[in-house]
Design brief:
The structure is a single chain. Helices cover 12% and strands 36% of the residues. It has one domain (7-251). Strand 2 (34-43) and strand 3 form a beta hairpin. It has helices at 81-87, 137-141, 177-180, 213-217, 232-235, 247-251, and strands spanning 7-21, 34-43, 49-54, 70-78, 91-95, 99-103, 107-119, 122-131, 147-155, 188-190, 203-210.
Length: 255
């Protein structure tokens, strides 16, 4: 069993959480109104931003250690953060059979700092929130805790799988040879190196480990105090408050 001191930081940066309401849902009030949940990872000192889709439309509860495995995948990888912002916009079209179809804009619901860690024989994704100052109903419904630790592993796209499980063959990542060799024939590998996540179609599993990073790993994440004026989601992603409602981020309320 790995000790608290047996921890190596592989990557650190900023993390953002978003949700998008279902089609034509302009007043979401709970998880049943959510179409997708997103997680954005922006590594420090690296010219890349990743947009990941979180399965089940919420994070696994970090307090339920080892009880659940949640699937997700990397949907977009870009050098320009504003390309990620554009993905969060609203859209409207009309169809002959369904009439007006309105896709609401995504809402920011959390901002913080994260690290990908090597801990003994496995890897972790850990984070601590900077916003909102106090989590509310929307964060509770999406299982976004003040801080959390998840064991993270990456799926081997060449291992096959059950029909209708995960992405199709054409959607899965095509890793370069050096990364593919890290699997050594196994179905899953640790997220080491984190560059696995730089490839669109990379599938991963999150397994809850703890809701107290310091207690579990002996690590202080040191989130900073952020405000509407200093929030990185506006500074880095250039999020437009007129397009993307920010009440969930600052008040913890559905909007």
């Amino acid at each position: 069993m790995a000790s608290k001191g047996d921890v190596q930081t592989l990557e650190k940066g900023s993390i953002y959480f978003f949700y998008r309401p279902k089609v034509n849902e302009e007043e979401p009030s709970g998880l049943g109104d959510v179409e997708r949940m997103y997680m954005v990872l922006s590594p420090g000192r690296r010219d890349v931003v990743r947009l990941a889709v979180v399965g089940r439309k919420k994070l696994p509860d970090p307090s339920e250690k080892g009880r659940r495995k949640y699937w997700g995948f990397v949907d977009m990888v870009r050098k320009d953060p504003t390309a990620i912002r554009d993905e969060f916009g609203s859209d409207e079209n009309r169809t002959k059979t369904r009439g007006r179809q309105y896709l609401p804009a995504a809402r920011p619901v959390g901002e913080g700092v994260y690290r990908i860690l090597r801990h003994g024989d496995h890897t972790h994704l850990v984070y601590a929130l900077e916003l909102p100052d106090k989590t509310g109903k929307v964060q509770k419904d999406l299982n976004i805790a003040r801080e959390a630790s998840y064991i993270i592993s990456v799926k081997n796209p060449e291992s096959g799988g059950k029909p209708q499980a995960g992405l199709s063959d054409g959607q899965q990542a095509g890793f370069p040879k050096k990364l593919q060799e890290e699997f050594r024939g196994r179905k899953f590998a640790d997220a080491d190196p984190p560059e696995f996540l730089d490839h669109e179609g990379c599938e991963f599993l999150l397994i809850p480990a703890s809701d107290d990073v310091k207690e579990e790993l002996g690590l202080e994440l040191n989130p900073e105090h952020e405000t509407r004026h200093s929030a990185d989601v506006f500074q880095e992603l250039r999020l437009d408050v007129d397009e993307n409602p920010v009440r969930p981020l600052f008040e913890g309320k559905w909007d």
